[in-house]
Amino acid sequence: MAKLDKVTNRKDTYSLKWDVADNELPMWVADMDFETAPCIIEAICDRVKNGIFGYSIIPDAYFESYINWWDRRHNVTYKKEWMIFTTGVVPAISSIVRKLTSLAEKVVVMSPVYNIFYNSIYNNGRYILSSDLVYENGQYRIDFADLEAKLADPQASLLILCNPHNPIGKIWTKEELATIGHLCKKHNVVVLADEIHCDIVEPDKKYVAFASVNEECLFNSITCLSASKAFNLAGLQSACVVVADENLRHKVSRGLNTDEVAEPNAFACVANIAAFTKGEEWLNNLNEYIEENKKVFKELVKKELPNLYVVPSEATYMLWIDCSYYTENADELCAFLRTKTGLYVSSGSIYGGNGQKFFRINLATQKERVIDGFNRLKTGLLAYINR
C-alpha cells in the first residue's frame, strides 16, 4: 500500500492528464497517478537495455497471457485463434464501426456512456441511437422494452456495450447480459463489448464477460480487452480483440489491418505479458486502495456535502456524482470549480443521457490528493451557491 501512496510528479512528462496550470488538480481523464507494477517496469527496462527498437512481432506469449489471465481471474475460456492484436480499444472500436456498418446506419448505445463512443460513431458518418438508462431511486437500470425498440430499427446494425459501464461504475449481471445478447441476436445486431475496465472492481466483486454468458452472446459479439486501465499502460498502445465467429473475425481483422492499427510498438507486448503473468498481487492491492479512496470520499460527501449524491459504484476508479441539488448545468458547475478552486473534473453532459445533472471524478490517485480534491469541491460548491 505504501508504494501506492507515493506521489510521483507527472508534470513535464507530456502527460495529457497533468497538462494543467500549477494550481490545478486534475481528476478527470481515466488515467491513474500510480506508478505501474514493478514487474512491468523491470520488463520494459530489460527491453530498453537491448538498445534497438525496430519493428516488432506479436509473440504467442502475448495472447497466452490474456488467455491464462481470463481463465484464472475471470473463469473465461478464450482461444488464441479468436484473438487479434490492436493498438487500443478506441482505435479498434472506430475501425469496427467503419467495417461492420455503412454510412448513415445507426449504432446503439446505452447512455450515459463513455463519450468517445460518440466520436467513433459520429466521426465515421453514422448515427447515434441511444437507449437511455433509467435513473430511479439513485441507481441505473436498462429499459429493455426501449432497448428492443431501438435494436429493431432496420438501420441499427451494431450495439456498443460498456461492461463494466463507464461512467456509472455498474457491473452488468449475467441475466442482464443474456437479455442484451438475445435481443441483439433476434434483431441481427452485433454486440461490440468494451471490457477495458473489467479488472478495476471492488475486491469482493466479479465482472461477467459478455462472451462467457452463452453461445448466443459468444458468437454474435466482438470483445475489446486491454491491460491499459488496470495497469496504467494506455501510453504503450496495446489491446486485444476477441471474436469467436470466424466470418465476423475475418471482417474485424481486415478492418484493423486496413486501418494500420494491428502492429505493436517495441514495448507493448513485453509490458502486457509482464502485467498478466506477474502483476496480479499488485492489482489486488490497487483495487483495495481504490476501494478505500472511494470509501473516504463518500464518507466526506455524506458528512459535509449531503446534498450531493454518489451513485453506487462497483467498478472503475471513477465516481458518478449527482449534483442536481446545485444545478442541472454540469458544464457550468465544472467550469466554475476549475476556475475557482483548480479542481478539474469531467462534466456529465459529455456522456449523454441525463448526464447534465452529474459530474465524474477520478479517484485513482494518492489518498492525500483525494482529500485535497474533496476540499476543493466543498469550497467550490459553497462559492457556487453564494455567487
What would you note in describing this structure?
The chain is of the alpha/beta class. It has two domains: 2-36 and 280-381, Aspartate Aminotransferase, domain 1 (Alpha-Beta Complex), CATH 3.90.1150; 41-278, Aspartate Aminotransferase, domain 2, CATH 3.40.640.10. Helices cover 40% and strands 15% of the residues. It has 13 helices and 15 strands. The protein has helices at 38-50, 60-74, 89-100, 116-122, 144-151, 174-186, 215-218, 228-231, 246-258, 268-278, 280-304, 330-341, 367-385, and strands at 25-26, 83-86, 106-109, 127-130, 134-136, 139-141, 156-162, 190-194, 221-225, 239-242, 309-310, 318-322, 343-344, 346-347, 358-362. Strands 2-10-9-8-7-3-4 form a seven-stranded mixed sheet, sandwiched between helices. A four-stranded antiparallel sheet has the order 11-12-15-14, with helices on one face. A hairpin with a 2-residue loop joins strand 5 and strand 6. The longest helix is centred in the last third of the chain and has 25 residues, at 280-304. The protein is globular and about 60 Å long. The mean pLDDT is 97.
